[in-house]
Amino acid sequence: MIYSYLPAGQMDRKTKVMIEKYNIPFINSTLVISAWDNELLVGVVRVLSDKMFRSVIYDLVILPAYQNQKIGKELLKRCIEHYPDSEWLVQTTNQISEYYKKNGFKESKDTFLTIACKLFTVK
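User: That's the sequence. What structure does it adopt?
Assistant: Structure tokens below.
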């Protein structure tokens, strides 16, 4: 398995826009770490961070055929190694929260407020 690092450098219209602009969130992230099986991208994690106080995981995705092989765990570990003193945050669902808890994350008592992304809002 190869892990690579990228530093902070009629389909429905919303889906079309998301596909056309797919790379923008990755290009504008502070840290992107990917896992490869030869030429096949099998996993990726995307982080926004101030590199000191707070780091936020926005996406952790592993191809279904490669899940349960500790690739996600390794991607998370490598993220935290980049900014080891930072507070780490992840927004997730109840179904997936157990995965993050197994990897050292704890539920926060803080209140997080959001304004939903228009590309993800269903009417």
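Residues 2-102 form a domain with the Aminopeptidase fold (CATH 3.40.630.30).
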